[in-house]
Design a protein that fits this description.
alpha+beta, Glutaredoxin, 2 domains, five-stranded mixed beta sheet, 14 strands, 19% strand
Length: 288
């Protein structure tokens, strides 16, 4: 099978699951009563985060949010570490998703986890980071994971810019908050949103490739980005039928062209072999 044939077969195999209907994840939220009315996750696609806002990392050092970016896209999520339920599920879903992607935190992308509670400490964040790295199973990637705590003003600034609406719940002493993650470009632009606690591996991978302006990933990733388009209403990449048909047509023409070239080449070799065999026979006939 030619390389073009293999690529076509692989693309078809990857596209097939997308043709099936899928349940669309929506933002989840925890809280009580009236307070939930102000809790939501608004998509601010194309908006920019204030990367000069100051936080503390899990070692207690004061840093700018920009220090967590560098030249890489970022997977950003908001939690509070004393959350009794939802935040742990968000982080578990994040780990499961990123484990299935063959990119390395600290090399192709970074992870930023911001606590929404100004009373939480770097020591608490450090403990959560160790626990998460144990589940991730790659402790050597620790430099690519940033667990941040900060004051109320800095937290609110970034959360508001990201569209993450949360409120303290005086009845429970906890926070009412939504769930999800955001893929952010290296310069702080909000690129893609994924809601809930289970994050689609393929879509998050494509979002990272796109946020990095296709500087990471494979040829197959580039082909998939031609066929899939991010749909803000679902928080997923959906199949673009026309692009898929165009790509399939081009690949089919490529495979056909490759096959025709191979057939013509084989025919030329066959004719050449026949001519080389016939030449000695003609010489014998002349001299005989």
């Amino acid at each position: 099978m030619s390389s073009l044939s293999r690529i076509l077969a692989l693309v078809i195999a990857l596209l097939t699951p997308a043709l099936a209907a899928a349940q669309v994840p929506r933002p989840m939220a925890v809280g009580s009563g009236e307070i939930l009315k102000s809790v939501r996750f608004e998509q601010r696609l194309g908006g920019t985060l204030s990367l000069d806002e100051k936080f503390r990392d899990d070692q207690g050092r004061e840093i700018r949010l920009a220090d967590c970016f560098g030249a890489r896209p970022v997977v950003l999520t908001f939690v509070y570490h004393e959350c009794p339920m939802l935040c742990g599920q968000v982080l578990q879903g994040l780990v499961q998703c990123l484990k299935a992607i063959d990119f390395t935190p600290g090399r192709e992308y970074n992870v930023v986890v911001i606590s929404i509670s100004p009373t939480e400490t770097p020591a608490l964040a450090a403990g959560k980071k160790r626990s998460l790295l144990n589940r991730f199973g790659r402790p050597e990637t620790a430099a690519g994971w940033h667990f941040l705590t900060g004051d109320e003003a800095s937290i609110r600034t970034i959360a508001d810019e990201a569209g993450y609406r949360y409120e303290p719940d005086p009845k429970t002493g906890q926070y009412a908050h939504p769930s999800g993650l955001i893929v952010v470009t290296p310069d702080g632009k909000l690129s893609k949103y994924f809601f809930g606690i289970d994050f689609p591996t393929r879509d998050v991978r494509l979002a990272l490739v796109e946020a990095a302006e296709e500087r990471i990933g494979t040829v197959v990733d580039q082909l998939l980005l031609l066929c899939f388009h991010y749909d803000p209403s679902t928080g997923r990449y959906s199949l673009t039928v026309m692009r898929t048909l165009q790509l399939a047509g081009l690949l089919t023409l490529g495979v056909m062209g490759s096959g025709i070239y191979s057939m013509l080449r084989q025919e030329r070799l066959r004719v050449k072999a026949v001519e080389e065999t016939a030449e000695p026979e003609r010489e014998e006939a002349v001299h005989g």
